[in-house]
């Protein structure tokens, strides 16, 4: 019982909510948290089949899981989501704000509607959900936001998404201080280019798929599992004093691009 590594990584008894948890990186995070003992709630918006499949996969692995449909960009839907969790479990220990969307266009080709949609889901939603969820959280709880290198670097046609990711990193810093007295740690994991459905949103001529499929300085490509393990690590007891930070999981890829 003296294995500190096991105890730090053990999330048994924790209740975790993963937004956008039915596919891609969100699904990998849900599976990783579940494998470490957490009860996992999958939030999704449209794809019922994918959400069902992920819940079934979790349950087949012995994880207690459920799905709740909710539009994270809608304030009433956020309150309803948190209300359902409170009614079912009475508390929440881990929130992973992974859900993201966005319109891939340069600034000059973007409409205000495109901007609002992207910011509502990627920045406003995580802010509202974090505040609402914090009411169910006790000392030792965790909020993890997901970002990308486009928050600080300029990527092709990434204007609205990049700005929204810069915003969520700022939200992380402010919430880390504001929720700190409650014992809630808030951090961001910034994932490099991982080959998921989200990569398909980039036009082929930008070469993003080529970047995602080539070796990083670490000698291999980045996978969803690489990202999920860092998220899970931040949920463990060893990460107690990591607050308001942006942790990049990119195999060193962003170090070699100016």
Kindly describe this structure.
The chain is 41% helix and 14% strand. By secondary structure, it is α/β, with parallel strands linked by helices. It has one domain (4-249): Rossmann fold. Strands 3-2-1-4-5-6-7 form a seven-stranded parallel sheet, with helices on both faces. Helix 3 links the parallel strand 2 (39-44) and strand 3 (65-69). Helix 2 (24-35) packs across helix 8. The longest helix is centred in the middle third of the chain and has 23 residues, at 112-134. It is globular, with a radius of gyration of 17 Å. It starts with a helix and ends in a 9-residue tail after the last strand.
The CATH H-level homologous superfamily: NAD(P)-binding Rossmann-like Domain
| CATH topology tier name | Rossmann fold
Report, as a whole number of angstroms, the end-to-end distance.
Answer: 47 Å
How many β-strand stretches? Answer: 7
CATH top level?
Answer: Alpha Beta
Class of secondary structure makeup: alpha/beta
